[in-house]
Amino acid sequence: MKDVIDLALNHRTIREFTDQKIDDKTIKKLLGVANHSASSNGMQMFSIVRITDQNIKDQLADNGNQEYMRRAPELWIFVADLYRNYSIAKENGVENDEMISFDKFIQAFTDAIIAVQNVVVACESLGLGTNYFGNIHNDTQRVIDLLNLPKLTYPAVGLGFGYPNQSPQLKPRMPIKLKAFENSYRVFENYDEKIKYYDKEMTNYYDLRDANRRSDSFSLQIPKKQGSLIKNRGKMFETLEKQGFLVKSK
């Protein structure tokens, strides 16, 4: 069992895994970790779909446009789930619209994210490598259809994990003083100046990782990644409404 602080400080995304199978006892233990994660008001508004069908895994990889997704030994999709509790309430004749409001969706989405993070920490403590897959939102509706998700559910994030077959460099992070404040948010006059050294670190990181590809600083990545829209991601709000969530106030 590895020290949790060291694990957190040395977290790396693992994209390639060995052929070693994760035993059922470990899978059961990891599901237990997810099940005992903190949840908003104790409502436990998340579910997990474990992908064991290679055909489904292949289609998820195609949808996400990441080839290595299909090679993840374990692939779990964490789902924001208001369907289960709403069904329980309906069976007891006490359902109402507040149960499927945007507020409750945010709580459910948060529950799913807390659960997946706990599973990641548990995985890494057992010597497993992990990889988050936000690419399920490249076409969220396709994922919903593929996994037969009912109304009032919404895929939050995917997680691939297994025994690592690589040991990538630790990716540099922006100085914490730009992200952590006391009592109120701090606005800086010149962010470019503040991240000048970090930009150099990131350029060097990509130079070493991708010797044959052009490397970018963090500041140049912002317009490419945050400032661009992947096809169909603009439909996520529309998909939420289609799934039955009441995303607008009456």
From TrEMBL:
This is Nitroreductase. One of its GO terms (molecular function) is oxidoreductase activity. It comes from the Bacteria. Transmembrane segments: none annotated. InterPro entries: Flavin_OxRdtase_Frp (IPR016446), Nitroreductase (IPR029479), Nitroreductase-like (IPR000415). Belongs to the flavin oxidoreductase frp family. Keywords: Flavoprotein, FMN, NADP, Oxidoreductase. It comes from Anaerococcus prevotii (strain ATCC 9321 / DSM 20548 / JCM 6508 / NCTC 11806 / PC1) (Peptostreptococcus prevotii).
